[in-house]
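Summary of Year 1 activities. Much of the first year was spent building the evaluation harness for sequence design. The harness presents a backbone, in tokenized form, and records the residue chosen at every position. We chose the following record to illustrate the format because it has been used consistently in internal testing since the harness was completed.
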């Protein structure tokens, strides 16, 4: 194998360095006398002794052979061609081999991925909103279909990766912040019956994975696969970003403002939770890390009403409650049913009943109960008033991705089945039960498929059985997985409206009283 940099235009003969000198690098001919020449001029056999083996014989022909490509090795029937016994083996420094990029070369180190969203050996491109039941840390962005591809198939709507909207004084949302599956954040304002885009926040270098809007201070915090977070403040008619260095080496996955809006938490693929707060003396945002005993990517976060306890769900099948007490920005917390001693990073609770990635976690309005949903299609609820007893319900649906309390005993969850489901907790018996589906399908007449529709189904979903298989005929309001549920008005104690967003690019607002009147058997306690 010829050394890197050898070219046919300026051919130069290379020989092995003297093995007795301890060097294993190659030297060009002419920098030292050749062994054959030295032996001939010395006039005896002893003149060439101690100078190493003779030079490698050159190939016959009018001139030397052209230089072989870098990293090229002679192969014959799958085996390396033997070298002449008289020629010494040539070896190059490891740094040259690694720089040359020869795959599998001895001593060459594997290249490190330059992408900041590399999490556990896979791309982390989604936040709390995911499109398919794949492991967290393996969230792959769906490739958009080119316009006009297939049999007349049009490009579908981009999935909404993250949505957040603060409550107005009247309780109805007037503005909403969304991420349209890229590195931007769009803010829409309601004008009559329409939503009009009024702002675009462009500061992230990677895809935005989390958004949270503080209603009292009117600040927005965002995080993304570029491993950074930004706090956006409205000055006049412009949103100004402030960089928050999270000190993580993997993508950020989710972000949540604390109830008092004086700090926020960021979960990431670095197996840490960053608790960020503003330092007045230095006029910047700093963060502290909660590390142990997290062993995998943090997927979801939720704050306790006391502004100190933080619930986290991760890919190690655990739901945990930590103390996020920051003495620089808040007073010493009062004792809670979860514990009385709450130094920073203290583990207050850890689940042991889940057998799947914890996609969503939520505290109740009182803070004495915490619920979470896992990838094994189970919902669990831990009650601190009952010595942290855990109630588990295995649902008949596909895995749930998000949940929220709408009363102290009622929860709404949704996921890959594309519709919200009501769950009820009985405090006397300590059990969970399913209250039924909230999105009741409407009766519609069935019709046959045309040839065009069959070809479109084959192109989109690899199925021609019917419109339900292609997603267009689903009997639910959402046509793809529901990835987030947010309380719009009333709070978690007495929710009157909640919002669901999905991978179909749609957002739906649900009125609780209208659901109770529309569904006869529905009882929200």
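For this record, the design step produced the sequence shown next.
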């Amino acid at each position: 194998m010829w050394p890197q940099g050898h070219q046919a235009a300026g051919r130069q003969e290379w020989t092995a360095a003297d093995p007795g000198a301890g060097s294993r690098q190659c030297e060009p001919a002419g920098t030292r006398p050749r062994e054959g020449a030295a032996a001939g001029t010395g006039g005896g056999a002893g003149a060439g002794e101690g100078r190493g083996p003779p030079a490698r014989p050159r190939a016959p022909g009018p001139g030397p052979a052209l230089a072989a490509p870098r990293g090229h090795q002679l192969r014959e029937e799958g085996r390396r061609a033997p070298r002449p016994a008289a020629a010494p083996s040539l070896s190059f420094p490891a740094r040259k081999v690694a720089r040359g990029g020869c795959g599998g070369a001895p001593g060459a180190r594997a290249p490190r991925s330059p992408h900041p969203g590399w999490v556990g050996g896979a791309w982390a491109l989604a936040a709390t909103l995911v499109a398919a039941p794949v492991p967290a840390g393996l969230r792959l962005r769906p490739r958009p279909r080119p316009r006009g591809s297939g049999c007349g198939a049009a490009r579908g709507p981009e999935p909404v990766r993250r949505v957040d909207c603060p409550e107005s004084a009247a309780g109805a949302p007037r503005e909403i912040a969304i991420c349209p599956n890229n590195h931007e954040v769009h803010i829409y304002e309601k004008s009559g019956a329409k939503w009009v885009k009024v702002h675009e926040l462009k500061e992230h270098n990677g895809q935005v994975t989390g958004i949270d809007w503080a209603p009292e201070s009117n600040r927005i915090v965002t995080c993304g696969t570029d491993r950074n977070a930004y706090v956006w403040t409205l000055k006049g008619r412009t949103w100004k970003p402030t960089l928050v260095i999270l000190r993580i080496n993997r993508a950020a996955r989710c972000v949540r403002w604390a109830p008092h809006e004086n700090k926020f938490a960021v979960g990431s693929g670095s197996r840490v939770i960053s608790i960020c707060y503003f330092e007045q003396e230095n006029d910047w945002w700093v963060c502290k890390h909660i590390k142990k005993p997290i062993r995998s990517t943090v997927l979801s976060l939720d704050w306790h009403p006391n502004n100190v306890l933080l619930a986290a769900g991760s890919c190690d099948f655990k739901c945990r409650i930590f103390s996020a007490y920051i003495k620089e920005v808040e007073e010493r917390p009062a004792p809670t049913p979860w514990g009385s001693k709450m130094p920073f990073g203290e583990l207050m609770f850890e689940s042991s009943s889940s057998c799947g990635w914890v996609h969503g976690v939520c505290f109740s309005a009182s803070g004495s109960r915490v619920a979470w949903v896992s990838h094994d299609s189970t919902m669990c609820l831990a009650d601190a008033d009952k010595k942290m007893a855990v109630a588990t319900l295995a649902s008949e649906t596909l895995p749930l991705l998000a949940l929220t309390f709408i009363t102290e005993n009622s929860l709404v969850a949704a996921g890959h089945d594309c519709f919200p489901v009501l769950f009820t907790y009985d405090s006397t018996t300590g059990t969970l039960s399913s209250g039924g589906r909230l999105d009741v399908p409407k009766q519609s007449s069935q019709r046959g498929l045309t040839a065009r529709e069959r070809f479109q189904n084959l192109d989109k979903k690899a199925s021609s059985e019917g419109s339900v298989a292609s997603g267009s005929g689903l009997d639910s309001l959402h046509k793809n997985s529901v990835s987030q549920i947010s309380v719009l008005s009333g709070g978690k104690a007495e929710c009157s409206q909640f919002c669901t967003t999905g991978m179909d690019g749609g957002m739906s607002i649900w009125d609780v009283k209208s659901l109770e009147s529309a569904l006869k058997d529905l009882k929200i306690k």
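The chain is about 5% helix and 35% strand. Quantitative recovery figures across the full test set are reported in Table 2.
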